[in-house]
Backbone:
C-alpha cells in the first residue's frame, strides 16, 4: 500500500473517531431534555456547538474517505474503518474518562491485528 493512501486512510478514520468524541461531548445538555417536547429536543440539539463541530468533522472525514476510495479497492480500504473503533476507545478513555475493561482491550487488539493482515495483503 502506498504511503499516501495509508496516510489518507488514517486521517479519514481519525477524523471520524474525533467526530464521535465531539458528538458525545455535545450530548451533555441533552440529558436535561427528558420529558420535553420533540421540538424542544431538536432546538437543544441545534443549539449545541459540539454537535455542529462533530458533524463538520464527519464531513471532512467523508471527503477524505471519498479520495481514498478513488485511489484503492474498497476491499482493502474498508477494513481500516475498524481502526476507528480503536481510536474511539482510546479517545473515550483519555478525553471522556470512560472505563476500558480488559475484554475491550482484547477486542481492540484483535481489530488491530486484522487491520495489519489486510494492510499486508494489499
Residues:
Amino acid at each position: 500500500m502506498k504511503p499516501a493512501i495509508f496516510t489518507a486512510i488514517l486521517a479519514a478514520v481519525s477524523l471520524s473517531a474525533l467526530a464521535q468524541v465531539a458528538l458525545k461531548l455535545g450530548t451533555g445538555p441533552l440529558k436535561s431534555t427528558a420529558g420535553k417536547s420533540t421540538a424542544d429536543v431538536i432546538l437543544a440539539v441545534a443549539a449545541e456547538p459540539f454537535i455542529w463541530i462533530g458533524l463538520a468533522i464527519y464531513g471532512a472525514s467523508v471527503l477524505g474517505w471519498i479520495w481514498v476510495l478513488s485511489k484503492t479497492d474498497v476491499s482493502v480500504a474498508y477494513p481500516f474503518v475498524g481502526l476507528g473503533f480503536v481510536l474511539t476507545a482510546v479517545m473515550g478513555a483519555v478525553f471522556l474518562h470512560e472505563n476500558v475493561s480488559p475484554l475491550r482491550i482484547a477486542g481492540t487488539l484483535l481489530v488491530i491485528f486484522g487491520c495489519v493482515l489486510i494492510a499486508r495483503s494489499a
In short: The helical segments are 3-26, 38-46, 49-71, 74-77, 82-95, 102-121. Residues 83 and 112 are 7 Å apart (CA to CA). Residues 3-121 form one domain.
